[in-house]
Amino acid sequence: MSSADIVNEAIRSRRSVRGFLPQPVDEWIIRDILKSASFAPSGSNIQPWKGHVLTGDKTNRLRDLMFAAFTSQTPERREYQYYPVNWRSPYIDRRRENGFGLYETIGIKKGDKEAMFKQHSRNFLFFDAPVVMFFTIDGDLEKGSWLDYGMFLQSIMVAARGYGLHTCAQAALANYPDIVKRELGIPDSEVIVCGISMGYEDPTEKANAFRATRLSIDQFVQFHS
């Protein structure tokens, strides 16, 4: 494979995996992935990212706490607005296509709210991943730094593919910031951006057979010459 093929394969094979094997990930691999991600660009090189890596008992404890909060329907308290307040086409259409496609793949019928709730609850089990990472940003930084953060997070997920690992970026893990901050000693001046579950894919998990559709280039780009 050429260098271009290797890079493109890493990018194109990245997807949201929703079922992981219990196989642990060596710490040196996690460190190397984060080292690669640290080369992501940021305005004036301010590097606004801060992270927490959980494995072993710490992962299990936070998993138990967050799962209990969700299943007991503890009110969520996200620190920022992730999705549009008022959905409109084409974005609501793409969201529905994605959600219905996943549910169809795993055999959840339309309107089965109990099954949907159970599937959503797996977010807070980190989809059984052996590694979960939480990322924060100082609350006084502006939109530019959030844009930079996206490039950093993408770099983690792409670098993980080089080690045969998969990931799932989870905005849902920012829904209970009080729990996360208390357990990880994160100050109130920081905002929980998201979590990333990481590990080796479980090939028997039905949800992992789902493939989200992608727009063609001509649907979102105009070339000018």
Stretches where pLDDT falls below 50 for ≥5 residues? none
Helix content: 40-55%
Q: How many domain regions?
A: 1
Tell me the distance between the termini: 32 Å
> What's the CATH architecture?
3-Layer(aba) Sandwich
Quaternary state of the chains: single chain
Number of distinct beta strands? 4
- Shape by Cα distribution: globular
CATH superfamily: NADH Oxidase
Q: What is the chain-wise order of helices and strands?
A: HHEHHHEHEHEH
Biggest β-sheet description: 4 strands, antiparallel
| Beta-strand percentage range | 5-15%
Please tell me the overall pLDDT: 97
Describe the structure in brief:
The protein has 225 residues and is an alpha+beta fold. It contains eight helices and four strands. The protein has one domain: NADH Oxidase, CATH 3.40.109.
